[in-house]
Protein backbone atom coordinates (compact mmCIF):
# COMPACT_ATOMS: atom_id res chain seq x y z
CA UNK A 1 0.00 0.00 0.00
CA UNK A 2 1.21 3.54 -0.63
CA UNK A 3 1.99 5.75 2.34
CA UNK A 4 1.19 9.45 2.54
CA UNK A 5 2.43 12.32 4.67
CA UNK A 6 0.71 15.66 4.86
CA UNK A 7 0.08 18.63 7.11
CA UNK A 8 -3.44 19.17 8.41
CA UNK A 9 -4.30 22.31 10.35
CA UNK A 10 -0.61 22.89 10.98
CA UNK A 11 0.05 19.40 12.32
CA UNK A 12 2.15 16.82 10.49
CA UNK A 13 0.57 13.42 9.83
CA UNK A 14 2.21 10.33 8.45
CA UNK A 15 3.62 8.46 6.85
CA UNK A 16 0.30 6.56 6.92
CA UNK A 17 -0.42 3.62 4.67
CA UNK A 18 -3.62 3.98 2.65
CA UNK A 19 -5.36 1.98 -0.04
CA UNK A 20 -4.69 3.48 -3.43
CA UNK A 21 -8.44 3.91 -4.00
CA UNK A 22 -9.18 5.51 -0.62
CA UNK A 23 -10.77 8.93 -1.11
CA UNK A 24 -9.43 11.92 0.77
CA UNK A 25 -12.86 12.27 2.34
CA UNK A 26 -12.69 8.78 3.80
CA UNK A 27 -9.11 9.36 4.89
CA UNK A 28 -10.09 12.47 6.86
CA UNK A 29 -13.30 11.07 8.30
CA UNK A 30 -12.61 7.37 8.77
CA UNK A 31 -8.85 7.19 9.27
CA UNK A 32 -8.19 10.43 11.14
CA UNK A 33 -11.63 10.99 12.68
CA UNK A 34 -11.86 14.52 11.29
CA UNK A 35 -15.60 14.33 10.65
CA UNK A 36 -16.06 18.07 10.26
CA UNK A 37 -15.44 17.57 6.56
CA UNK A 38 -18.75 16.34 5.19
CA UNK A 39 -19.72 13.91 2.44
CA UNK A 40 -22.61 15.16 0.35
CA UNK A 41 -23.06 14.33 -3.30
CA UNK A 42 -19.91 12.29 -3.71
CA UNK A 43 -19.64 13.62 -7.25
CA UNK A 44 -17.78 16.93 -6.98
CA UNK A 45 -21.03 18.87 -7.33
CA UNK A 46 -21.87 20.33 -3.90
CA UNK A 47 -18.51 21.18 -2.27
CA UNK A 48 -19.69 20.27 1.23
CA UNK A 49 -16.54 18.16 1.34
CA UNK A 50 -14.16 20.97 0.34
CA UNK A 51 -10.98 21.63 2.31
CA UNK A 52 -8.42 24.40 1.96
CA UNK A 53 -5.17 23.52 0.22
CA UNK A 54 -2.29 25.87 0.98
CA UNK A 55 0.18 26.12 -1.89
CA UNK A 56 3.88 26.75 -1.44
CA UNK A 57 3.57 30.20 -3.04
CA UNK A 58 1.32 31.46 -0.25
CA UNK A 59 -1.94 31.11 -2.17
CA UNK A 60 -4.80 28.92 -1.04
CA UNK A 61 -7.76 27.31 -2.73
CA UNK A 62 -10.51 24.92 -1.80
CA UNK A 63 -10.63 21.44 -3.23
CA UNK A 64 -13.27 18.72 -2.96
CA UNK A 65 -12.23 15.56 -1.15
CA UNK A 66 -14.96 13.15 -2.22
CA UNK A 67 -13.64 12.28 -5.66
CA UNK A 68 -9.92 12.76 -5.08
CA UNK A 69 -7.70 10.00 -3.74
CA UNK A 70 -5.93 10.53 -0.44
CA UNK A 71 -2.68 9.75 -2.23
CA UNK A 72 -3.14 12.90 -4.33
CA UNK A 73 -2.80 14.93 -1.12
CA UNK A 74 0.58 13.44 -0.28
CA UNK A 75 2.98 16.23 0.66
CA UNK A 76 0.28 18.90 0.75
CA UNK A 77 -0.71 21.29 3.52
CA UNK A 78 -4.43 21.51 4.06
CA UNK A 79 -6.88 23.08 6.46
CA UNK A 80 -10.22 21.64 7.52
CA UNK A 81 -13.12 23.13 9.42
CA UNK A 82 -11.53 21.89 12.64
CA UNK A 83 -8.58 24.22 12.08
CA UNK A 84 -10.36 27.57 12.09
CA UNK A 85 -10.92 28.27 15.79
CA UNK A 86 -7.78 28.72 17.87
CA UNK A 87 -7.83 27.70 21.54
CA UNK A 88 -11.60 27.80 21.46
CA UNK A 89 -11.76 31.32 20.02
CA UNK A 90 -13.89 31.50 16.89
CA UNK A 91 -12.68 33.44 13.88
CA UNK A 92 -14.56 36.57 12.78
CA UNK A 93 -16.03 34.53 9.93
CA UNK A 94 -17.28 31.79 12.25
CA UNK A 95 -18.80 34.43 14.53
CA UNK A 96 -20.45 36.06 11.54
CA UNK A 97 -21.95 32.73 10.42
CA UNK A 98 -23.50 32.40 13.87
CA UNK A 99 -24.73 35.98 14.17
CA UNK A 100 -26.34 35.76 10.71
CA UNK A 101 -27.79 32.36 11.52
CA UNK A 102 -26.23 31.39 8.20
CA UNK A 103 -26.73 27.66 8.58
CA UNK A 104 -29.68 25.46 9.31
CA UNK A 105 -28.72 21.77 9.24
CA UNK A 106 -25.07 22.82 8.91
CA UNK A 107 -24.12 20.10 6.49
CA UNK A 108 -22.78 22.50 3.87
CA UNK A 109 -21.24 24.86 6.42
CA UNK A 110 -17.65 23.53 6.47
CA UNK A 111 -17.38 24.06 2.73
CA UNK A 112 -18.80 27.58 2.87
CA UNK A 113 -16.58 28.43 5.82
CA UNK A 114 -13.45 27.23 4.06
CA UNK A 115 -14.38 29.10 0.89
CA UNK A 116 -15.14 32.29 2.78
CA UNK A 117 -11.84 32.07 4.63
CA UNK A 118 -9.93 31.66 1.37
CA UNK A 119 -11.68 34.76 0.04
CA UNK A 120 -10.83 36.82 3.13
CA UNK A 121 -7.18 35.86 2.88
CA UNK A 122 -7.14 36.65 -0.84
CA UNK A 123 -8.67 40.09 -0.32
CA UNK A 124 -6.22 40.82 2.48
CA UNK A 125 -3.42 40.39 -0.03
CA UNK A 126 -5.26 42.05 -2.93
CA UNK A 127 -8.00 44.42 -1.73
CA UNK A 128 -10.83 45.29 -4.11
CA UNK A 129 -13.04 48.34 -4.60
CA UNK A 130 -16.27 48.39 -2.58
CA UNK A 131 -18.24 48.39 -5.83
CA UNK A 132 -16.90 44.91 -6.66
CA UNK A 133 -17.65 43.38 -3.29
CA UNK A 134 -21.09 41.84 -3.88
CA UNK A 135 -20.02 40.25 -7.16
CA UNK A 136 -16.76 39.01 -5.66
CA UNK A 137 -18.51 37.29 -2.75
CA UNK A 138 -21.09 35.78 -5.09
CA UNK A 139 -18.40 34.41 -7.38
CA UNK A 140 -16.35 33.06 -4.48
CA UNK A 141 -19.26 31.10 -2.99
CA UNK A 142 -20.56 29.95 -6.36
CA UNK A 143 -20.59 26.17 -6.65
CA UNK A 144 -21.35 25.52 -2.98
CA UNK A 145 -24.78 23.97 -2.68
CA UNK A 146 -27.03 24.35 0.35
CA UNK A 147 -30.13 22.18 0.46
CA UNK A 148 -31.53 24.41 3.19
CA UNK A 149 -31.16 27.35 0.77
CA UNK A 150 -29.08 29.52 3.06
CA UNK A 151 -27.31 31.29 0.23
CA UNK A 152 -28.30 34.85 1.14
CA UNK A 153 -27.28 34.41 4.77
CA UNK A 154 -23.93 32.93 3.84
CA UNK A 155 -23.34 35.78 1.41
CA UNK A 156 -24.22 38.39 4.01
CA UNK A 157 -22.09 36.71 6.66
CA UNK A 158 -18.98 36.75 4.48
CA UNK A 159 -19.65 40.24 3.14
CA UNK A 160 -20.19 41.73 6.58
CA UNK A 161 -16.84 40.48 7.87
CA UNK A 162 -15.27 42.41 5.01
CA UNK A 163 -17.38 45.52 5.58
CA UNK A 164 -16.54 45.45 9.29
CA UNK A 165 -12.87 45.97 8.46
CA UNK A 166 -12.81 47.84 5.14
CA UNK A 167 -9.22 49.04 5.49
CA UNK A 168 -8.08 45.44 5.46
CA UNK A 169 -10.07 44.09 2.53
CA UNK A 170 -11.17 47.03 0.38
CA UNK A 171 -9.34 49.75 -1.50
S1 LIG B 1 -19.48 15.60 -1.46
FE1 LIG B 1 -17.77 16.33 -2.53
S2 LIG B 1 -18.57 17.80 -3.90
FE2 LIG B 1 -20.32 16.96 -2.93
S1 LIG C 1 -27.53 24.51 5.99
FE1 LIG C 1 -28.43 22.61 5.42
S2 LIG C 1 -27.49 22.13 3.52
FE2 LIG C 1 -26.83 24.14 3.95
From TrEMBL:
Gene3D superfamilies: 3.10.20.30, [2Fe-2S]-binding domain. InterPro entries: 2Fe-2S-bd, 2Fe-2S-bd_dom_sf, 2Fe-2S_ferredoxin-like_sf, 2Fe-2S_ferredoxin-type, Aldehyde_Oxdr_Iron-Sulfur, Beta-grasp_dom_sf. One of its GO terms (molecular function) is oxidoreductase activity, acting on the aldehyde or oxo group of donors. Residues 2-84 form the 2Fe-2S ferredoxin-type domain. PANTHER family: OXIDOREDUCTASE WITH IRON-SULFUR SUBUNIT (PTHR45331:SF2), OXIDOREDUCTASE, IRON-SULPHUR BINDING SUBUNIT-RELATED-RELATED (PTHR45331). This is (2Fe-2S)-binding protein.
